[in-house]
Design goal:
- The complex is a heterodimer of chains A (about 400) and B (about 575).
- By secondary structure, chain A is of the alpha/beta class.
- Chain A folds into 2 domains: about 210 residues, FAD/NAD(P)-binding domain, CATH 3.50.50; about 100 residues, 2-Layer Sandwich (D-Amino Acid Oxidase, Chain A, domain 2).
- Chain A contains 12 helices and 18 strands.
- In chain A, a hairpin with a 2-residue loop joins strand 9 and strand 10.
- The longest helix of chain A is centred in the last third of the chain and has 30 residues.
- Chain B contains 20 helices and 22 strands.
- Chain B is globular and about 95 Å long.
- Chain B has about 575 residues and is an alpha/beta fold.
- The chains are: A alpha/beta (about 400), B alpha/beta (about 575).
- Chains A and B meet through helix 5, helix 6, helix 7 and strand 16 of A and helix 19 of B.
């Protein structure tokens, strides 16, 4: 089989790339290892920065209709179980099984071909240039020759590993678990709750990312409950992901309050969430890598989908130019890193600063909360503005909220 | 130019200039271990990839903590699971690469009877297969070997004779044949003396045909003879003839096995319906009453009770069904997980209608002499087995029942011929069941292999160096981590089995063979946990590894730049 571009992975990132490529008149094949629709462990958030792309694909209305919740406030619960609340620009929570499938179907309307149950196993590389992929489709070896490949095979990316640009940083690789529960108590419709590492863990550790989250779905009839923790800190707890989650349910005030009558609708499922502070090498001649395959997001901040889709859109504007110029040099492809970096780095930098300056220790976090509570208009403070104000005014540090930010 | 210090066989240190080093591509390495074993400087070692097991519900097995996961990596692997040191990952991935002949050769190098193992090995490799322990079901390793053995027509070439020493082996069972195979491959002249009219030992006498087709054994033995081993049949060896053999040959390996079934001498053991397992299998294998009524077909009718719960007991029980028993029960002291037969044997026997009576001890044979009418059994109240295999148990004599039996078959273990135990000469070695408590075919072969290595080491004045003893698993770097999520979820194909209705009336093999499609689907399930790595400090760049690599696309020799490493 021969195609102009093969997009590996039909998640939001790959689908977006395939959509805009096909729209630009490129002969595209989108492949995915799963049988669609498929589920994914996630906080299920689709942020407003995605809406223009949803409009392009003609799925905005469908996404809105499928939303299980439109959260508009965030409650941050600190290690001592005190909390502060902030307003957010409302976004959509759509279970990924539904939301990702809407995106994929929307993407295919522009004319890309699609094959599922197709596991890409390795890239065909000739003279240092990627020329296609080898994989298994329905237990049969298949080769697809292509002028260029978009690698969007996600968090466990086999192809990025082949290229040696896959990351395994124990501080930035998070492991997450999610389950849908019935009978979770004390939630409020539209309020997303993030619980930070409790200070009473049996083997104390401190992870700067929220440990658990609770989000009400369908007017609070069910809840999306999850856990995220970086490899390094999970190892320090000496527990399994599931064990740590159980511990949180039973040994924290909020955990008990929320979960004591809760019944799981499905078991806790795990997933690997890669994160980074900056876009690093995300190309080789003939191929570009987007989304979780190159850890293009600080996933625990719920920005995984935007960074993947923005990466896909950038890839779709970059590749047609490469195809028509025929320039498959290292230099040409290195432009891709700059292009994606321009889009995503400001957001990543903002997150990294927020993480380092506020979340990385209990004291600054408490300081931030107390400061927020003393601000006029509390609790109706805008979250991002508050973060910027607090760091510049109180901590005397510069934290830039860029125009190109992918945050809200 | 770099140099490498090498310790020679005689303990001298030699410095060799390094012009090239071997590089193994971990993506392509099948982990067959061929290069590792031939490397003259032991520069190659096996690395095991970490299999990620952090996320709950990612696989069908329980998630782990990070510490457990990292510890698990080097605990066990299929490559260390086989008592004969075969690398299942190696031949499975050679099948995957379409190299069936190379895959068969890989197995044949380690065991002389691959097709036999493909049918009756109790596959300890599958017990430790990481896919089985961490993901879902183990790879059907034995079934792949079976597929291999049916798909390839392997003709052994004659091994070159390298040494003058001549070696005699007593017994052409799995242990004797394995010892002979290793020694004739090493270049010795080997003669095997077999007391029966055909070679194979327990493979022919003990294991019933529905598990192992006789023609398979014959073909394998023919291959061994082609490769240079001489087998002399109908050679019953007594003390006198053994002395002669000892004089004529440079070494004797006794692999005479345990041909005699132990008797159960409780009340009534001399009644006519009481048989031992060997006695019974002999009749079954010939289907004729040779001794008592020449020409008359051997048939069992009525109810049969087998005493014992091991593999032999289950085999005899299933054989009894096939020769006409109306009802078969197996009585054993053990219960639950302690029952020594393998779970799959029990399952197959149960499907065929054998009932297992667990936790009962036979007390006496009931009947009016010489007619057997039943077996009295008592409840076992406590049971324990120490590490040497010695059993202690207590019974409750008040809790006894009589099981109706027209025949009982005693399958409580085998014993060697006592004459061998007195032998203690320098040039006599022991192998197989006679030398150990382990009694599976694969264990017997492993002990044959050990004996052969020892003979070779003694003759050549080497210290015994067994690659299996120095085979250590190392932990691969995190960049090689395997995510089970990335490996396709696919169900282990069912191994074709003859339907129960037809199989209990025939001695045709019960277990079938994968077709091409299933075999391919199955080899694709391998997680490929292991790969080999060259230690560049030890590599002398000889290139032997590259020449022996059966896969071909794995090892490259890379020149070392002048002036050492960059």
């Amino acid at each position: 089989m021969k195609k102009q571009v093969v997009v590996v992975g039909a998640g939001p990132g790959g689908s977006t790339a395939a959509f805009y490529l096909a729209k630009a008149g490129v002969d595209v094949l989108l492949i995915d290892r799963e049988t669609w629709p498929r589920d994914k462990v996630c906080g299920d958030s689709y942020l407003p920065s995605l809406y223009p792309m949803f409009e392009d694909m003609g799925i905005m209305e469908e996404m809105k209709a499928a939303a299980a919740c439109n959260p508009k406030s965030l409650r941050i619960i600190d290690p001592d179980e005190e909390y502060a609340e902030f307003d957010l620009q409302p976004w959509l929570i759509v279970p990924r099984r539904i939301g990702d499938d809407i995106i994929r179907r929307g993407a295919l309307t522009s004319g890309a071909d699609f094959m599922e149950n197709f596991q890409a196993e390795e890239l065909i590389i000739r003279r240092g240039v990627v020329r296609g992929i080898r994989g298994i489709h329905n237990n049969r070896d298949v080769e697809v020759e292509a002028d260029a490949v978009v690698i969007a095979d996600g968090s466990h990316s086999a192809l990025a590993r082949q290229l040696g640009i896959y990351k395994e940083d124990p501080e930035y690789i998070l492991y997450a678990g999610r389950a849908y529960y019935d009978g979770v108590e004390g939630m409020e419709d539209g309020r997303f709750e993030e619980f930070y590492t409790p200070s009473n863990l049996p083997k104390p550790t401190y992870s700067p990312i929220c440990l658990t989250w609770v989000a009400p779905l369908y007017q609070g009839k069910i809840a999306s409950v999850g856990i995220t923790i970086a490899e390094k800190y999970l190892r320090e707890t000496g527990m399994t992901l599931e064990g740590l989650f159980q511990w949180w349910c039973e040994n924290t005030k909020f955990g008990r309050e929320r979960m004591h009558n809760a019944r799981p609708i499905e078991k806790l499922k795990g997933w690997r969430l890669p994160g980074s502070r900056k876009i690093e090498r995300n190309y080789v001649p003939g191929a570009v890598v987007i989304g979780d395959a190159v850890s293009s997001a600080e996933a625990a901040f719920e920005y995984g989908i935007p960074s993947a889709m923005i990466g896909g859109k950038v890839a779709a504007s970059f590749l047609p130019e490469v195809l028509s110029s025929g320039d498959f040099s290292e230099k040409k492809f290195s432009e891709f890193q700059t292009l994606v970096g321009d889009e995503l780095n400001p957001g990543l930098e903002y997150n990294a600063n927020f993480r380092d300056n506020i979340l990385a220790n209990k004291e600054t976090m408490k300081q931030f909360q107390n400061w927020a509570k003393g601000q006029p208009g509390y609790p109706h403070l805008v979250y991002d503005d508050s973060v910027v104000k607090f760091t510049t005014q109180v901590l005397n540090k510069e934290i830039v909220k860029s125009d190109k930010k992918i945050t809200q | 130019m770099d140099s490498v210090k090498v310790i020679s066989g005689k303990g001298r240190e030699v410095t060799v200039g390094q012009t090239a080093v071997a590089h193994i591509n971990p993506r392509n390495c099948a982990n067959c271990g061929t290069c590792r074993e031939v490397c003259p400087t032991d520069a190659i070692s096996e690395y095991q990839r970490v299999i990620c097991r952090i996320c709950p519900e990612c696989t069908e097995r329980e998630a782990m903590t990070f510490d457990e996961m990292y510890e698990f990596t080097t605990k066990a692997a299929c490559t260390t699971g086989c008592p004969l040191g075969i690398s299942p990952q190696g031949y499975i991935n050679l099948v995957r690469a379409g190299k069936l002949d190379e895959a068969y050769k890989l197995v044949w190098d380690k065991i002389p009877l691959p097709s036999v193992c493909a049918r009756i090995c109790h596959h300890p490799c599958e017990q430790v297969c990481k896919r089985g322990v961490l993901v879902d079901e183990p790879i059907a390793i034995r079934a792949i070997k079976r597929y291999l053995s049916e798909k390839t027509t392997f003709k052994a070439e004659k091994y070159p004779r390298m040494y003058d020493e001549r070696i005699a082996i007593i017994g052409a069972g799995p242990a004797g044949l394995t010892a002979g195979h290793y020694l004739s491959r090493a270049g010795y002249e080997v003669t095997v003396f077999e007391s029966a009219a055909e070679a194979g030992g327990m493979l022919k006498r003990g294991i019933p045909e529905f598990r192992l087709d006789r023609s398979v054994v014959d073909e394998e033995i023919a291959n061994l003879e082609n490769a240079g081993m001489e087998i002399r049949l109908n050679q019953s060896i007594d003390r006198h003839s053994l002395k002669e053999i000892q004089r004529e040959y440079d070494a004797v390996i006794i692999a005479a096995g345990t041909p005699n079934s132990k008797e159960l001498k409780i009340d009534g053991w001399r009644m006519s319906g009481v048989m031992t397992a060997m006695n019974f299998m002999e009749k079954v294998n010939h289907r004729q009453e040779i001794m008592t009524h020449p020409g008359q077909m051997f048939d069992l009718n009525g109810e049969v009770v087998v005493i014992g719960g091991g593999s032999v007991a289950i085999d005899t029980a299933r054989a009894a069904l096939r020769v006409g028993a109306s009802k078969v029960a197996a009585v054993c002291l053990e219960s639950g997980e302690n029952v020594p037969a393998h779970p799959w044997e029990l399952k197959e026997a149960e499907e065929e209608g054998v009932t297992l009576v667990e936790g009962r001890s036979p007390m006496r044979f009931v009947g009016k002499y010489p007619k057997l009418e039943g077996l009295e059994v008592c409840k076992v109240t406590s049971f324990s087995k120490d590490s040497s295999g010695k059993i202690t148990f207590t019974v409750d004599k008040n809790d006894s029942t009589i099981i109706k039996a027209d025949w009982t078959i005693v399958a409580i273990g085998q014993a060697p011929d006592p004459m061998w135990s007195e032998l203690k000469d320098d040039n006599v070695y022991f192998a197989g069941d006679i030398s150990s408590n382990a009694c599976s075919v694969i264990d017997a072969m492993a002990s044959g292999r050990k004996a052969a290595l020892k003979v070779d080491a003694d003759f050549r004045g080497r210290t015994l160096k067994d690659p299996m003893d120095t085979h250590i698993l190392h932990s691969a770097p995190l960049s090689e981590k395997v995510y089970p999520y990335n490996r396709r979820k696919s169900i282990r194909p069912e191994i074709p089995m003859q339907p129960v209705e037809s199989r209990i009336h025939s001695f045709e093999e019960v277990e079938g063979c994968f077709d091409d499609e299933d075999a391919m689907a199955e080899v694709l399930r391998c997680l490929r946990c292991g790969y080999n790595v060259v230690d560049t400090d030890k590599c002398i760049g000889c290139g032997v590894c590259q020449r022996v690599c059966p896969k071909g696309d794995v090892i490259t020799m890379e020149p070392v730049a002048e002036g050492g490493e960059e």
